[in-house]
Amino acid sequence: MDNGQTINDRNMLFEDVVKEWLEHKKANVKESTFTQIEVIIRNHVLPTFGYKKIMTIHRPEIKRWIAAFGELDKNGKEKYSFGSRLKYLSVMKSILHYAVHELEVIEKNPADKLRVPVQDSVAIKKEKVKYFSLEELNQLLDFMKTYKYQRFPDYQLYYVFMYFLSKTGLRISEALALRWEDINGDKITIDKQTSRDDNNKVKLTTLKNSSSYRTMKIDPGLVRKLKKFKLKQNELILGNERFHKNEDSIIFQNCHGHYLTPSTIRETMQDYCKKAGVEYKGTHGFRHTHTVLLLESGASLKYVSNRLGHKTIKTTADTYLDITEKIEEDELQKFASYTKR
């Protein structure tokens, strides 16, 4: 009061602040993001700070808390990744910011401008983007095209799925949510994605950000492939009682009429890559491949960014820095060769 400030309940417990903050957060983030935040708070934040009064939490204690997650285990590896520690500290900062500016139970944020310490001051290496070369992609697709499935040999679900991903660069969650009605001629509308609840039951959710909502054009080859796949799918639905129709009329349904699960896709793709003699590149491999091939073919960074549904061009440039640097170097060599006297 001497300083002209009125502080509310200084004895408020940190866990009570968290409850208030979670209510605020629930109305402002996606359900899947909120679930991740709850897990972080339950497992990593409340065990240390939950029982404390909010006014007794000071900067040195927060620094020790976040540093402990970076300690090395018996194998010499950090207990938690740098990315995980960034998330934990970000959540802590947000809670304390809420305590200062909304609840007004503390005067300043003790975690303000605090950084995640890096072990031995070694810079974190950027994870290398994994993608198929054009030769590897063709080798895999050629194998999948002739592969005969055990139950319904002519229902080439994974061949069309891989081909589709390599031609569109969609996130797997976006592709799995697509319905036949989302295709209009040579255009596809992306406005939803799949996710799983705690019981592993599929649900449709909103997209990652506003830029993820997009309509993209597809090439004639993919249009023909999808039409042929739809005919085969309808033929099996009408002519085989063991083949069931998905109630949402999704494109990439299995023979039981169900959505594919990410874990099944990962295991199945790993198996097919091994049989085709091609290294598995992860669930994001086809998205990265589509992007790299676009950039190598001369597509502009702006076009690629819009197609991928990235929020900014910077996201695209940062993710594919190694590829864009190589392309810029090649372009500069072309310029030097053209202008050489």
From TrEMBL:
Q: Which UniProt keywords apply?
A: DNA integration, DNA recombination, DNA-binding
- Residues of the Tyr recombinase domain: 127-333
Where in the numbering of this chain does the Core-binding (CB) domain appear? 12-100
- InterPro entries noted in UniProt: CB, DNA_brk_join_enz, Integrase-like_cat_sf, Integrase_catalytic, Integrase_recombinase_N, Integrase_SAM-like_N, Tyrosine_recombinase_XerCD
Which residues are listed as membrane-spanning? none
Tell me any Pfam family this protein matches. Phage_int_SAM_3
* Keyword Hydrolase carried by entry: no
* Family, per entry: Belongs to the 'phage' integrase family.
Q: What is this protein called?
A: Site-specific integrase
Organism per entry: Bacillus bruguierae
Organism taxonomic ancestry:
Bacteria, Bacillati, Bacillota, Bacilli, Bacillales
